[in-house]
Design brief:
Blueprint (H helix, E strand, L loop, with lengths): L6 E8 L4 H15 L3 E9 L12 E4 L8 H11 L4 E5 L1 H13 L6 E5 L8 H6 L4 E4 L2 H9 L8 E3 L21 E6 L8 H13 L5 E6 L5 H14 L5 E4 L14 E4 L8 H8 L4 E4 L3 H6 L7 E2 L4 H12 L3 H16 L1 H15 L5
Parallel strand pairs: 1-2, 1-4, 2-3, 4-5, 5-6, 6-7, 8-9, 8-11, 9-10, 11-12, 12-13
Amino acid sequence: MKENKISVIQVIDQLNAGGAERVLVNWANILHEKGQQSAVITTVGPGVLAKALQEDIELFDLRRKWKWNPFAMYRLVKILKNYDVIHVHSSHNLRYVWLASKLFRLKKIIFFHEHFYFEKISWHRRAIYPKTKMICVSNFVRDWAIKNNLSTEKNVFILPNIIVPHLIDIAPGKKQKDIVKIVMTGNIAPRKNIEFALEIFNELKKQLFENYNLTIIGSVTDKKYYTYLQNKITIYGLEKQVQFIHDCDNIQPILNQFDLALHPSKFETGPLVLIEYLAKSLPFLSSNTGEVPAQIGEELPGFIIKNNEPETWAAAIQEIITMDKKILDKKMKTVFEKYYSIDQYYEKGMSIYAKGLEKET
């Protein structure tokens, strides 16, 4: 780590649309912008987010056909040996890198970025996690790791998620004066609690606020749940007010088209999407779960709802919509810079690498 210049390579299977994948891309780009050597390995295929990597960032794509192919593992280790820092995302990728390192004698420290937590802890997590330098996205995940003996106070670090705003990349489209456009993003799965958003809209409809429109952006990961949502839309008579978009890989360019965002998810560690809303000064209502609500709750108290009553959320929507837009914009920008600035994130990340690479005395 001479002169604070290091080479960092991050490992993941594919750069598909998702929170962990976006964190990897953001960190790779930040490292590159700060003058560090930044590279990425995908073991299966590049994925749609690969195009978001800056051009000078080297992308190694193993394109393995078979997961345990020893030739792919050998190529992986051969590449990893050329870098100071090995930074792995997601537990199944850690398992793969760990096995490859044992087979082909890679004697380097592995930094493992844990974006989630698990109620049931598999044998390979118990065996491998303690042998890494663990990076957690929240205090909750950190405490979970220590409590379950997956890491120690010395070997676990916290690096809360951030977003790199796309200030120029804005898609065509504008808000409609007579329609309040609300957005909700996330894969179509029960954990996202999308049915509650429909209950909120049903409440708004009861109160004769039918000029509210909801756009739900996300891939269908649970077909039964998606069918359930469609049925609920029909029951509530919301066909004209609710629409789905399933092919959007990057929401930031289109957030300017909305007036408000909803995030009633049942459980999150971040969530990254709330930082995206802050980055674009898009007001939002969120359930009180995850690191972000804990950080910003005191400064933006009207944004965090601590119950699951549709009436409360409907009233909060109407209150935020009537607030002074300039005052809200200024307040959100201040909060974003305080907690999620790129410089602050970079310093935290580099500090984690420095501490993780220190030789034990």
